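Dear support,

We are seeing what looks like truncated structure output for some complexes. This example has four components. We would appreciate it if you could run it in full and send us the complete token output so we can diff it against ours.
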Amino acid sequence: MVPAPSEQHGDVRRLVLDAAIAIIELEGAESLSMREVARRAGVSHQAPYHYFSDRSGIFAAISEEGFTGLAQAFRDVHETEMPAAKAGFIAYLNFAREHVGHFRVMFRNDICGVTTHALTQTAADSAFEELRLMVSRITGPEIDPNKAFTFAAMLWSLSHGLATLVIDGPLPNKVPPGTDLESQIQAVIDLSSHMVALEVAEMGLLPR
Amino acid sequence: MVPAPSEQHGDVRRLVLDAAIAIIELEGAESLSMREVARRAGVSHQAPYHYFSDRSGIFAAISEEGFTGLAQAFRDVHETEMPAAKAGFIAYLNFAREHVGHFRVMFRNDICGVTTHALTQTAADSAFEELRLMVSRITGPEIDPNKAFTFAAMLWSLSHGLATLVIDGPLPNKVPPGTDLESQIQAVIDLSSHMVALEVAEMGLLPR
DNA sequence: AGGTGTGCTTGACACTGTCAAGTTGTACTG
DNA sequence: CAGTACAACTTGACAGTGTCAAGCACACCT
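Here is the complete output from our reference environment:
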């Protein structure tokens, strides 16, 4: 069959990927089926295998895309006028909420392929490198490398915990009556940024 | 067939649950198969259906058990002499590491059954209630309820982020050479506790 | 004109979750 | 002590799944 004129080389790969992301956003990674993806992309049940080695290959491609996007989001933080810590929290959370499909896969070590797929691995590494750069903007560059790692891990934990609890976790159901989720999220981010600023100040570093 | 003398009423339920937890610890929730569970428990492929409505029923039972255990872990924090925040971080992380199978299911909203299974729901609620009690021991009880929720959400994010990054996330691979994972985790917990203490002090609350 | 490779398709197989319909032992009633 | 009811399973069947294998059609090079 001749492909429709609008379709270009590689279209199917994109169609498959988008279909997969859509399914993951709607129903979670659990219920992603190779055949359902193919149906949604309008191709035969084996077509995806032409672009991805198997089911795990699709997940790996999605998380590679995700880590690349997250690294970019970290880079964009440099452009803002906000304190770096606060901008970082917001960037992380926004990325998670705007790319739920990607995010759900990226941090699931059993399926994300970070240990098995080299491209995903390097994408994840470069995202972490950007996080490190961001941290050095918060603490200043002259900090001891071990201490810097500890600081990065703490900031990452805080961002990551908030993001996962918000997009998939039980936090939204627990918001007390009288406030809404958005303002509570804002409050958590403000509290966290403030707390980080106190710590940085006490460490005797430039408080930027 | 007559059950072996060592087997009691309800044994199969426990066997099935333990087999499921073992599989999840080893290979992740993704690859839990009803039939594999049954095989490991040494029963027919339909026996689990006698105790659990379906696959989601097993997940719901596991997360119910998990939330009950987590609530208990929070209660045990009251017994320690450590500052409450630090003891809380340690308790959360220890729970996650000692019950990886439970933990992996509990915070996966797509499978944990917290919205569909009433028992799981109430177990999750009571765990959150314990978290709230713990927070009031950190901030003091006279804090504004909204502010208390914000504080609880922040502490939860921090603990939860650290736990997920450690047990399933990419953090262990990123530890810089020259230190080991355990001492880095300890450092993150110390830094976090210190930061929380600074925040509490600045809030003008009892610094306990 | 013939060969080679890409981009698919159709077919088959073992395995999965789950519905339906037994089977077996045990407890309890009359 | 026969009869019945029920719990705790078992065996069987079916549609749906991931994936291996083979085939087909078209583009491009020689």
